[in-house]
Amino acid sequence: MNTRQLTAICRRMMPAVALCAALTLSPVAQAQVEQKPFVVPELQTWRGGEGTFTPTSSARVVYAGGNEARITASRFAASYKELTGMELAVVKGKPRQGDFAFVQRKKKGEADESYTLRISSQVTAEAHDLRGLQWAASTLLQLTRQDVALPQGEAVDAPRYAMRGFMMDCGRKFIPMSYLRSLVKTMGYYKMNTLQVHLNDNGFRQFFGNDWSKTQSAFRLECDTYPGLTAKDGSYTKSEFIALQALADSCGVEIIPEIDIPAHSLAFTQYKPEIGSQEYGMDHLDLFKPETYDFCDGLFREYLEGKDPVFRGKRVHIGTDEYSNAKKEVVEKFRYFTDRYIRFVEQYGKQAVLWGSLTHAKGDTPVKSEGVLMHSWSNDYANPLEMKELGYRLISIPDGYVYIVPAAGYYYDYLNCQYLYEHWTPAIVGREKLEEGDPCLEGGMFAVWNDHCGNGISVADIHDRLFPALQTMSAKCWSGASVTLPYAQYDARRAALGEAPGENESGRVEGGYTQAEVKAGSILPIEQAGYGHTVTFTVEARPEEKGTELFRSERAVFYLSDPRTGKLGFARDGYYNTFNYRLPSEGKVEISIECTNRNTTLYVDGKKREVLNPITLVAFQEKDLADFQPGEHEWKPLMYNPRAKMYYQRTLSFPLRQAGQYKSRILNLQVK
Questions:
Q1: Where are the beta strands (DSSP E) in 226-280?
Q2: Rounded mean pLDDT of 415-430?
Q3: Are residues 312 and 423 in the same domain?
Q4: Smallest Cα–Cα separation from 548: which of 582, 507, 517?
C-alpha cells in the first residue's frame, strides 16, 4: 500500500463528529468544493460535491453497453494498477458502492467524444463512443495520480475541436516504433486524438556537399512493390505499422500516415533517378513524366488495396508541400497532380489530407475541395480564408506558432507554451483569425520537424521538447479560448501528471536510486535516468578492453572504455561521443555524470572534468575544407556551404537497464 492509499483510507476513517462538521460548509469551503479539480485539458464543467471517493478493497471496474465499454474498463484497470498497485477485477453488470463503472449508452444529439463523470459513493463514466469513455478514464487516472481519494462531484466534458494532435517527422530522423507506441498511450492520456506519421523526407543538400546523391533521405515503411526503397538506417515493417494503428485506436488516437509527394521526395528519386526533376532539384518529382505517376500509384496502392490494407484509418496524407511555382505550366501540373492523388486515395474509401499550397500555386486547373482536409501551416502557401472560401476543411498548424525544429536555430527549439496557453487557439492561423468554432476548422496540431540530419538530436531530446508542447496543445485544442487557470498555476502542476501510466520516456527516477554494488551483467529496475539527473558510481578499476560497456538501455550505451580510444564515452541514436578521460588501470575513482537537456558533464572525484556542450559546426567551401572533427564522435558532416551551420548536440539520457561485462567493480551507484 502506498502513501496516497494510506492517506485516503485515513480520510475515510474520519470520526463522525468531524464528518458532521464538514457538512456545514463556509462560503470559502463551498468555493473550494466547486473549484474544478486539476486535469489537462481542464474540465469544461464541474459541479462539486462534498467529501471524496476511494475504492474499497473489493472494488471492481464494471462495464455496461457495447464492446467499447469493455475495452475501456480493461485498459483503465491495467493503468490503475500501474499507478496504485491495486488490482481491480473487470466485470460486466451493475456497479455497487466503491466501484468504477463505464457505461456506453446512446443519447440523441450528444457530441462525439463527450462524456459525463459522476463521483460519489461510486464512480460512473457515461459516453456514447469509445473516445468519450477513454477520455473519462484519462480524467480519472490524472486525478488518481494526484490523490487516490477523488473529489466528489459531476463533470460534463467535451472538446471544442474535433482534431487535436501533432505530426512527427520520421523521414529525416528515424523514430523507433517503441517510442511511437509509448507516445500514443500518452496522447490518449491527454485526450490528443491524432498522430500524423511523416514517413519520408530528406535533408538539405547544403549539409551534404551540395550533392543530391549524397544527401540524406529515407522512406521508413517496408515496401514490396519497390524492393530496396525502404531506408536501411531504420524502418517499420508492415505488421509493426498495423499493430501501431491498432494500439493507437484502442487509446482513442488516429494514425494518419503521410507519404510526402511531389516535393520532399528525394528518397524516391534516389531509388529511381529518372522521375526526379532536373530543373527544380532531385527532391522534386518530375510531374511531366508518366513514369512519375506510375511510381506513385504503385506506392500508394501497396498500402491501400485489399481487404486488410496497411493503412487502416479513415485518412491518408498525400503531402503536396513546397513544390516550385516558378512557371505557370509547372503550377498547373502541380494542381493536376494534387487533384489526381486526392481522388486516388478517395477511391479506397479514405479522406485525403494535404499540406496547403494552393495560394502559392494559384492557377486554372481545378483541385477537388469537397471532403478534403488541409493543413493550414503558412498563409503564403495557403491563406486560410481563401481555402475556406474554396471549401476545404482546415487543420490549424501555423509554422510561426507550433513548429518545433530541434536545435536548428530557426522556428522553435521549444514551443513558447506560455504564449500559446494565454493567447493562441486553433482559430489563429498565422496572420489570420477565424471565428472560434468556425465550421471549416477541424482542430489544431503542432509539428516536430527533424530538419538537420546529423545534428546529434536524440529521441530523448525530441521527447523533452514534445512533452510540454503536447500538454499545452492538449489544453488549447480541447478548450480553445476557454482555459480558466492562470498559466503559472497550470505550469506548476502539469508536470506532476506525468506520462501515461507505465510510460517514462522522460526517464524520471522518483526518489532517486542507490545500489551498493552492480555486478557485471546484472539487470537494474531502471531503464534510464533522464535530464535533470546525476549518476554517480565508484570504479574499483581493472584493465578493460576497448568497447567495454558500463550500462546499456534500449537506446543508449555508456562505455567504461569506448571502442575507439578506450576513454569514457557513450553512444545513442547512431551518435558517438567521448570524454577526454581514461580510467586508471587500478585504484578507485568516483565518477559522476550530470545529464541536462543542453549538455553532459563529467566529474572525477568530485571535480568537474569536462562539459560536452553543443558544438557549432561551420561549413566551408570545398577548396577550403578544414580537417575539422570536434570531439571524438564518429559522424562528420559533409558541408561545403559557408552559409550552412549545424548545432551538434551531445546530450545523454543515462542508460541503466543492463550492466556490461566489465572486469572492474562498480560500487555505490547513486541516481539523484
A1: 254-261, 276-277
A2: 96
A3: yes
A4: 582
